[in-house]
Design goal:
alpha/beta; Rossmann fold; two-stranded parallel ribbon; 41% helix; globular; disordered N terminus
Length: 141
Amino acid sequence: MQGAFALYRQRRTSRFCAERWCSLEREGGPLRVVMDQIGRPTLSAHLSEAVVNLLDVDAEGTFHFANEGQCSWFEFAQAVLQQAGMNIPVEPITTEESGRPARRPAYSVLDLTRYVETTGRSPAPWPEAVEHYLRLRVGGG
């Protein structure tokens, strides 16, 4: 799901970023996260709603969807951990320092214009989506 930058789900068994970061408090930090890759985090529940919105207007073709705004993986990790009330140190690193074998784009912010113009709906900002995710994570709906 790299095209969506940081798709995160509400299930605790998730292997996606937000859940993995939140589990570090139990495992012990620190967390090293790349600071030079920029994208749009996306909550899977919001992506599902976007698909329904597109179906409701009989949309055809290719659409990009993600939560509004952009950030680096480092900024995303900081926001998730801060909103979760976790005191885990986050260390910014470069893509090169991460040692990942697959190349990642430095800038993968999706253009949401076609989705917004077609549905008349703007996606929720990604920090709001993180808050939504964390409420669901603890069962607060």
